[in-house]
Amino acid sequence: MPFLRERSGAKGSPYRWSPEKIAALLLVLLPFALLAVRILRGDLAATDPLGLGAPGLGGPGLGGPGLNAGLGPGAAGGLGGGAAGGLGGGPALGARPLVETLRFLGDWAVRLLLVTLAVTPARRLFNWPKLLNARRTLGLGAAAVVAVHFGLYCIDMGSLSVVVREIVLRIYLTIGFVALLGLLALSSTSWDGAVARLGAERWRRLHTLAYPITALAILHFFMQQKLDVTEPTLMAGFFLWLMGWRLLQRYGHGTGLLALVLLAVSAGFATALLEAGWYLAATGIDPKRVLSANLAFGYSIRPAWWVAGLGVAVALASEAALRIRPLPARRARASGAVT
């Protein structure tokens, strides 16, 4: 099919521009555009372009200058801010531009992977069949960002032998490299000829690897962070929701309002537990203190609440959309996880 185009009708009809494909391409190009702006501004110190560390989401307070510092409103210079250079505390002095570029593209690769996985639920929840046209562009775009991320890492290391040694010796690099290999495998079969050669069922099974690949990418994201895991936790929470939706869809409840609200609450709760568990494993902080920080609404809104809130918003928006344009009976009854 021609680039950025779709059929205007039945087979044999002329092609027309696809808004979904164009929007997907623009989203893939967004991180490179933002990076170009930062290069032109000379701003490649560690920053938080999405504001995820600002008070209200990450904010100061999850920790402090040391690993065992307090967790909550009483902490000084928390992981999300302060002069120490957290996500919300302004540029971190002395960061190498290439290293910050690596982190920036790595973060965006995870976001694009999640957006790619969100295409299938959004397609059904809002009865938007043509949204499926965007999935291939998004997936290939995420793989391209990861490839550039890895290429810049090789340049930063300066030697292929050093790169190989680091991948073998450092577990977080091993995890990231496995995810890269998986994405390359999926990218190499993301064309119509590959579907025809493999057969639809074998191709579908192969592309379910997108789930563990995304999980590995998020784990790599967690392990890359020094102290503040606000955004990795948020990304993990969204991933839990996406996987939970697929489980609901398998049992025929993927568009039920009550099921979606329960999924949102469950995903939010699981996100809070994940955050507490990570801080316990990484820093030894009492999980009760992390969980209690989720209730300090006057100080910050933790990722668990964003996951739950967005999940409820999606449930309500889907209910309204499907009342306006209901799913056909055959599609409404269809179940089974899809990529």
Intertermini distance = 20 Å
Total DSSP helices: 13
How many domains is the backbone divided into?
A: 2
Summing up helix and strand content along with how strands pair, one would put the structural category as: mainly alpha
Number of strands: 2
Largest sheet: 2 strands, antiparallel
Order of helices and strands: EEHHHHHHHHHHHHH
As a percent range, the share of helical residues equals 55-70%
Major sheet: arrangement of strands = 1-2
> Any idea what the shape is?
globular
Rg computed from alpha carbons, rounded to a whole number of angstroms: 21 Å
Q: Averaged pLDDT, please?
A: 82
Low-confidence stretches: 49-94, 333-338
Brief summary:
This protein is mostly helical and 339 residues long. It has 13 helices and two strands. The protein is 64% helix and 2% strand.
